[in-house]
Design a protein that fits this description.
389 residues; disordered N terminus
């Protein structure tokens, strides 16, 4: 769920044209809306939104889930709504941070992959996703061994398979429950790789959004498990919203893109209601849709350049901490809360645990992600060079 937030520069205009990136279609084949294309520049606000979404999810897991509000639950031992009712009411909506992640993922994946080859796309995904994930799997397993009682430990062979990030496709449980979102991300990457291989253009991304959206709507009614698995109807429209927003950012708004975004909102509000009924059980549909709508409007402001003046450097670090925080906070954090719940005020404990995991996330980014990503990139580039030879 951690992606770069830097837009790629446009091709320079003039009498002498620079060669286009491999597999990119010539400008004449991309009937984008009329108007000047936006040039590169880091979108700092996206980094801040990502961290906010991660904090929403963490607060939800610690003090806002249906599980934590049950009598005798293993985390707090009594309903969290009795311990801190105001915190519970607010945190009960924090799960929407996941849907926010999906929209941002669609935006930044399209942005960071424009003009890249499939090889570059593959390498960028591996070096961004796996280093922090490998650490998280091992760290969470170690914490569950040291602090038992809340979550069931997996067998060693299941932990090892988790290192592939493909355990959901093999019917193996996740080391940490939050990893379910990675399965949705991987399926999105697999589908979008087809468009990357063809060369990203306005037309192709629009067609991709329309085709994927149609298949995602029809797959559940078709009764074909494989089609439903690939189409990912539970998450498809959030990613599609992000793709449409990036096209607005790059080429400017038009009625077609607004139509895709409106369709994504309509399908998204239905998915929010289904998740409340089937999984969450603690929040209301109206409040969830209101939060999701405000977020989409904020993303429209980002896409249209209304937030470009925000260039706070600390947001870059904030964005870098988001993915590690998401990966390590849940199973390990709730296990620590269960062990420490009787030692201090519940609100203070939640704040302290979130702060501790923010610090750990920074250390993971600094001492795990950066060096391991560099080594992986060097090794993968050398491997693909041998393939070309």
């Amino acid at each position: 769920m951690r992606e770069g937030t830097e837009a790629r520069p446009e091709q320079t205009r003039g009498r002498r044209r620079e060669p286009l990136p491999p597999l990119a279609a010539p400008p004449s084949s991309d009937p984008a809306p009329a108007g000047r294309k936006r040039t590169g520049g880091r979108l700092y606000v996206l980094d801040g939104i990502r961290l906010l979404a991660a904090l929403m999810v963490a607060a939800h897991h610690y003090a806002g889930t249906w599980r934590t509000d049950q009598p005798g639950n293993l985390i707090w031992d009594r309903p969290v709504s009795e311990i801190m009712p105001t915190v519970f009411r607010l945190a009960s909506y924090g799960w929407i941070g996941v849907e926010i992640f999906f929209v941002i993922s669609g935006f930044v994946i399209c942005m960071s992959c424009w003009g890249r080859t499939p090889r570059q796309f593959f390498v960028s995904r591996v070096i961004r996703l796996y280093p922090a994930y490998w650490f998280a799997v091992l760290f969470t397993t170690a914490v569950l061994v040291a602090v038992p009682g809340v979550w069931e430990r997996l067998q060693p062979r299941e932990v090892l398979l988790n290192l592939t990030m493909l355990q959901a496709g093999s019917g193996v449980p996740n080391v940490d429950g939050v990893y379910w979102t990675l399965w949705s991300e991987l399926r999105f990457y697999l589908l979008f790789l087809v468009v990357v291989a063809m060369g990203l253009t306005y037309r192709r991304v629009v067609v991709f959004c329309c085709v994927w959206g149609a298949v995602a709507m029809l797959a559940p009614a078709a009764g074909l498990p494989l089609l439903e698995l690939v189409a990912n109807p539970d998450g498809a429209w959030y990613f599609i919203a992000g793709l449409a927003l990036y096209l607005m950012h790059r080429f400017g708004q038009d009625l077609l893109l607004w139509g895709i975004l409106a369709m994504a909102w309509l399908m998204g509000q239905m998915e929010l209601g289904k998740r409340i009924d089937e999984v969450e059980h603690v929040s209301g549909w109206r409040g969830s849709v209101a939060i999701f709508t405000v977020f989409l409007l904020l993303m429209v402001a980002v896409a249209l350049g209304h937030t470009d003046r925000i260039r706070w450097k600390w947001l870059v670090t904030a964005g870098a901490m988001t993915y590690p925080l998401y990966l390590v906070h849940y199973a390990a954090g709730t296990s620590l809360i269960a062990r420490l719940r009787d030692t201090t005020d519940a609100r203070l404990l939640v704040v302290a645990v979130i702060t501790a995991f923010l610090l750990l996330s920074y250390l993971i980014h600094r001492w795990v992600e950066r060096p391991v990503s560099r080594m992986l990139k060097k090794g993968l580039d050398a491997s693909f060079a041998r393939l070309r030879e």
